[in-house]
Amino acid sequence: MSLPSSGEIKASQINTEAGRSSDAEAPLSGSSSTPQAGSLVKIYEGSGVDQSAPHSYSEFYGISYDVGVLSDVEYGEGQGPDDFYYDSSIGDASNLSIGDIIYTDSALTNPVDDSSYNPMSQAASSATTTFCSVTGSYMYMLVNPANGAITSVNCFMFLTDVFYDTSAPIDYYTYYYDSSIGDASNLDVGDTVYSNAQLTTTLPADTYYQAASSASTTHCSQSGYMMSMTVNSSGVITNIFCGLP
Question: Quick check: bond before 81 cis, omega within 30?
Answer without folding.
Answer: yes
